[in-house]
Amino acid sequence: MKAVIQRVTQASVTIDGQVHSSIGPGSLVLLGIHKDDTPEDITWIARKIANLRIFEDAEERMNQSLADIDGELLVISQFTLIASNKKGNRPSFNDAAPPAKGKADYEAVCQELERLTGKPVKTGVFAADMKVDLRNDGPVTILFDTRNKE
Gly-cisPro motif, important for rejection of L-amino acids: where is this motif (predicted)? Predict the structure, then answer.
């Protein structure tokens, strides 16, 4: 599982010309599900996202989490994060989870994030053609990969 977390002042996802979800200050998460991801990966990545201290404190140091700033989360499924670019110029998506597993794991991460943060998680629509708008704050962008937990 891979996640790209961006600290944002605002973000939204539009589907078929209509805004589906939007957030104010918080984190936009692009989430890619690998075919071999486990329940432990779901728990690990949700905990890392929920507790990530990328928001500034009174001394302007990145020392606060989403809970500390009462921030919001927008989580978007993005299977292309699992792409392999080892050969040629066309990415391979062979390691991406098949749709049923991808959707189930994506939803499980969102549910775990809601449990950990105590707040609703805004989402896109799994497998939809989505347009994502954001205002990256900083810019701050953090990557997590469950295959590199150490």
Answer: 138-139
